[in-house]
């Protein structure tokens, strides 16, 4: 049985308000894991540039060291460490799920919330260490 073109158009949503959609904790954990991976991809470039600058000469080392006295570089370093910490915790969560554990909805939500809490604690610790 075929649907007419008019019926298909009526079944489509007229207005999809993305602000009213609530993602479950498991979806947010997965999305943040991907975002932290992309952040770390760009962070590798920044860190390699900094490493190269420190290894070229004593002046290069001193200039990079002076960069770390500023707020912007400390904030970037804190962001990199936060992304690394979350990605590590999220990756461990995914590895555990790959073994067949935490696959039920309740345990998946609980593990996502624990990951968020541990990542927030790690972020605070990283911020204290950087500043």
Automatic annotation (TrEMBL):
Localization, UniProt: Cell inner membrane
One GO-annotated biological process of the protein: tricarboxylic acid cycle
Transmembrane regions listed in the UniProt entry: 31-51, 71-89, 110-130
Pfam family, any one: Sdh_cyt
Record Gene3D superfamilies: Fumarate reductase/succinate dehydrogenase, transmembrane subunit
Entry GO MF terms: electron transfer activity; metal ion binding; oxidoreductase activity
The keyword Cell cycle belongs to this UniProt entry's keyword annotation: no
Chief place of localization: membrane
Pathway this chain belongs to: Carbohydrate metabolism; tricarboxylic acid cycle
Keywords, in A-Z order: Cell inner membrane, Cell membrane, Electron transport, Heme, Iron, Membrane, Metal-binding, Oxidoreductase, Transmembrane, Transmembrane helix, Transport, Tricarboxylic acid cycle
SUPFAM superfamilies assigned to the protein according to its UniProt record, in alphabetical order: Fumarate reductase respiratory complex transmembrane subunits
Binding site for heme: 87
GO cellular component: plasma membrane
Membrane topology: Multi-pass membrane protein
UniProt xrefs under CDD domains: SQR_TypeC_SdhC
Cofactor binding mode and count: The heme is bound between the two transmembrane subunits.
Cofactor(s) this protein requires: heme
Sequence similarity: Belongs to the cytochrome b560 family.
Function field: Membrane-anchoring subunit of succinate dehydrogenase (SDH).
Quaternary data: Part of an enzyme complex containing four subunits: a flavoprotein, an iron-sulfur protein, plus two membrane-anchoring proteins, SdhC and SdhD. The complex can form homotrimers.
This protein's name: Succinate dehydrogenase cytochrome b556 subunit
Annotated organism of origin: Shewanella holmiensis
Encoding gene (name): sdhC
